[in-house]
Amino acid sequence: MKHAKKIVLLMLALCLALCLTACGSQKENTDDSNSPSNTESDASSADAEESTDTSAQKPVLLVVSFGSSYNETRDLTIGAIEKALQNAYPDYEVRRAFTAQTIIDILKEREGLEIDNVTEAMSRMVIDGVKEVVIQPTHVMPGAEYDDMIAEISLYASQFERFQVGDPLLIKDSDYDALIASLLEETASYNNEDTAIVYMGHGTHHEANSTYATLQEKLTAAGHTNYFIGTVEATPSMDDVLALVKDSGAKKVVLLPLMIVAGDHATNDMAGNEEDSWKTAFINAGYEVECVLKGLGQYDGVQKLIIQHTAEAMNAPDPLSTSQIKDGTYEINVESSSSMFKIVKCVLTVKEGSMNAVITMSGDGYNQLYMGTGEEALNASADTYIPSVLDADGAVTFTIPLDTLNVEMDCAAWSIKKEKWYDRTLIFLSDSIPADAITVE
């Protein structure tokens, strides 16, 4: 019996020893930095770090939109624009930012969806080590939202090696032409003499609200007299448009949003069944009404125009300051935002740290300039205005002081006939200055 117990004890001891040996072996394998599993893990970590570094160096195209809490239309409009830009510029990482904090907060609370505002997006790029940035807004006009965006992103401009900003949808005459072509294409099936095609914009108390009147003028001048532009919150108002439609003799009205996204305003203010909606107002006025809930962001022509603006920003020359140009006189090119402000010649003079440009106009309709907006000109002292001067040939000229080339400048022009300031933008270009006249600081 004692012998049997001894055998059992020996067997238990042997089992315990084997278990301890096995555990020790497993621990050694776990701690072995040369084990296959750890070698693979380390390689994966290295690859991840390398991938992160590569991503950080990739240029970023930040698409800035007002935003929308309507998921479907957001994907069809803002999402479609972002996708089109990514397809057009595959070497860039496309990122998103919204300017409407209220919408950002709604999406976060309702769906857990986190979208950067502009400041957050800019800070994130700095932290990520991004060196090249292109900012492309999807705003229809350079209004308050656009101004706020410019103010925010400008604080970060010096933290990138290259920093470019694309235009909003409507700036230059050619932008209006492109948008009108897109509007006509999208509404071709409705376009007949008995149908009024009414586009409803947002409207703003910002001076950029004149964009709507300009678009209407261009549509009418081009013979599209059954197209009407109105706004929800400014002028032309719904009542203004209703009066014009009545005068046109139309029998049917098609309502569409003149907004990137067909969101709350389009769904409720335009197409809603409430008494104060545009749809109800036109029905009560005796019209057959059809509402089309399709944002501008879905228009192929609008996407192409935004892509074009991005290309212009990417290809824009870097700013060139006075100190980078040798003293001398150079004939340079000037881009004007309006064909109504046509510059036929520009002579740049650089001397002893100062620079000015003498521009020669194609006509004689303006007699004063102000380097700023028309609204700013109204509040400025008259001695800050730039008067016109006739040259030896009787052409109208203006002498404009400059400190930098290749940057967009606000310029208000006083119309003699209309007795009002007109907003323009100018870019004085360095492309015709000889290379040996440009110094590298």
**Cα end-to-end separation:** 101 Å
- Strand content range: 15-25%
Largest sheet at a glance?
5 strands, antiparallel
Mean pLDDT: 88
- Low-confidence spans: 1-55
Oligomeric organization of the protein chains = single chain
CATH architecture of the largest domain: 3-Layer(aba) Sandwich
Domains (count): 3
Estimate percent helicity: 25-40%
| SS field, number of helical segments | 14
What brief labels describe this structure?
14 helices, 39% helix, alpha/beta, single chain, Immunoglobulin-like, five-stranded antiparallel sheet, Rossmann fold, disordered N terminus
Give a written overview of the molecule.
Helix 9 links the parallel strand 5 (195-201) and strand 6. This protein folds into 3 domains: 53-165, Rossmann fold (3-Layer(aba) Sandwich); 173-299, 3-Layer(aba) Sandwich (Rossmann fold); 320-437, Immunoglobulin-like, CATH 2.60.40. It has helices at 2-31, 36-57, 71-76, 78-88, 101-111, 118-127, 144-154, 173-186, 210-221, 238-248, 264-270, 278-284, 300-314, 374-379; strands spanning 60-65, 93-98, 132-137, 162-165, 195-201, 227-231, 252-257, 288-291, 320-321, 328-331, 334-336, 343-351, 354-361, 366-370, 386-387, 389-390, 396-402, 404-405, 408-415, 420-428. It has 14 helices and 20 strands. The protein has a 5-stranded antiparallel β-sheet with strand order 10-12-13-17-16, with no helix packed on it. The protein is globular, with a radius of gyration of 31 Å. The longest helix has 30 residues, at 2-31. The chain is an alpha/beta fold and 441 residues long.
